[in-house]
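Q: Got a minute? One more chain.
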Amino acid sequence: MYGVSQLFAFLLTDNNKVKNGYCYPEEPELAAESTYAGKLSSDHSYGYDKTLKETKKFFERALKGWGSTLEPVAKALSGIRQLFTEQVCSYRLESKRRFYKKFKKLTDMCSVKSGLRDIKLLKPCYLQELSDTELKRLINDKSLNPLSDICDQLFLRTNGKYLYLSFDTKLLDSAIKRRLSLLLGAIREPEKGLDEYPSVNDQALASTVRKIIKPMIKASRNEGDPVNKIVRSKKRAIYIEGCPGSGKTRLIVKRVRYLLSQGVEASQISVLAFTNEAAAEFKRRLKEKGLYDTRMFVGTFSGWCNQLLDATQKLDVLNRDAALDELQSVIDKDCKMAKAFALDDIARRCFDVFSYMANYDTPILNNCIKKVAPDLVCYQNDILALHKAYIVHKKGKFRDFNDMLSMLRTRIAEEEFCSSILKKTKHLIIDEIQDTNIVQWNIIKGLYRKGINFFCVGDPAQSMYGFRGAKSGYLDKFSGLFANSKCFKLTDNHRSTEPLVELANVIREKINRNYSISFPVKDSETACRPRIKSCDYLKEAVSWLINDLQESHTTTSHLILCRYKNQCKRVEEALDEARILHGKKKAIQVYTYHKGKGLEAEHCYVLDPQFSKSKLSSYKEELCNAYVALTRAKESLTILACNSGSSVYGLDNKQGKRAGKSIFLDLPEELLEFVD
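A: Always. Here it is, folded:
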């Protein structure tokens, strides 16, 4: 690697074989910091403005987890205009060669000619020949073709002067040969090493900067919308994106109070929660405030659907657990799938496939299996037979959640039926809207077109049910889907301390940089950083967890969150063996990430999904799962990360199939306290 003392250098090559070249970042309004000449998959050269890139990277680390960028902070920093001019400007050049099978011995490297021999840089003195517009365009895009065109024009303007800086090839070859010799010597005698460089504690520097700029970030952050403004909005369709701990449940209760105060009949309000437990909590809070009326519907989406459907068809309604039991009872015990998997596992995974199929009028089974359970594609015939058997088994006796959705989707096309719904429900209020699937969205849109009022709250970063067809992406298009609509944001986190919120925000930004960032409200002067303990195996992690619980002697509430039921079972068995009380209404409770959603505790232990060999969801969905788990903690958090997981992420349209690296081991070290 070689460099020159120059800011905003412009790189070209004399190698006629190089046809490709591009810049990063690609956004047209940003200065290009890096330029590539050649394909990354083969030999290529690379140059970057070191001052620009490394200053930016440093501030990215310092701002990590606060949902801010350098731009708003820079406005509050005195001397920001001297940031670059007072530093030594430098431009770094690298040449990368891919040797493949060319060499039989390491010493053969010494015969290789560096790609830097072909590199040339535009001399800075000739930039004055460019207009401001040309120069700005060049700073934004320094890739090969635009630069070559401008250099051709400069050649004519300067009457054929030589415009470039290039390397003295003899000195270059000599210098590279000397460095290669040092490298080979270090390989032969590792204890000698290469050059010694003074150590710099970059983490300590970033920590110092974080303390300085924290008040600036708080001052420049985008405030959430006032609750009273949201509650009193007259728009027919309202969506509130609320961060964890932002008071989404309280907001819904206040909206019900407001509607009742405006003369809306209690019988015309329907409040839909994602689970029966959440619905019970809404009922409790409404009763506590003296707002609940038996004519008001407060329940789940499926319960609401069942109430709206024709009451003459007396069928038993199956919740998920009951549906799994019925499905398991009709599995052919002699089929290939039954010989490869446990019956309860087959029922659970096939029910998810059938739930995904329910999103479509004419579902293609093979495509649905690929989306939900790609490793079961080879059992397509068995799954088809099970689906038919389940339909026959339910006929005339049972109705499950998918049946109710499909039936309601069909019925809302009938004018008379829609009119009867609008007589019962004028205001539809939905919690956890990000977990709404395609059929539910179609039902909501159909009723909205007929005149229903729609108020919903949710958090797309907590979308955990993509495998069932949940479409949180519809929230990005909310204003386009619903006329006379308004979107609001709640950003204050009243639940967790600042170090916990900062760590969770890192994952939130990975999910989608456009989501509103959560900001802590609680006094966090004495708050501690989240702990992380890395283990190789689940047994080791559970053993450490039990010891930690025994040593803490605390009576505060604890949530132990696992990705899978079998992990929960292992933890519960260990708690029983250690005679540690746990369970509902106890200080210690064990749940899966999904079951833990909506709960909170003083302290949370979060176990890495990688402690299982199960196939995970897509990378983005696993980020959402991790985000939900981490944001349950109020005061303290312990992550049990897996060093040696063998799981892989599922298919994702953008990411493709990714290696199974732990999400938790990829978190910023400066935001964590590592436990030996």
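A: The chain has a mean pLDDT of 85.
Q: Perfect, thanks.
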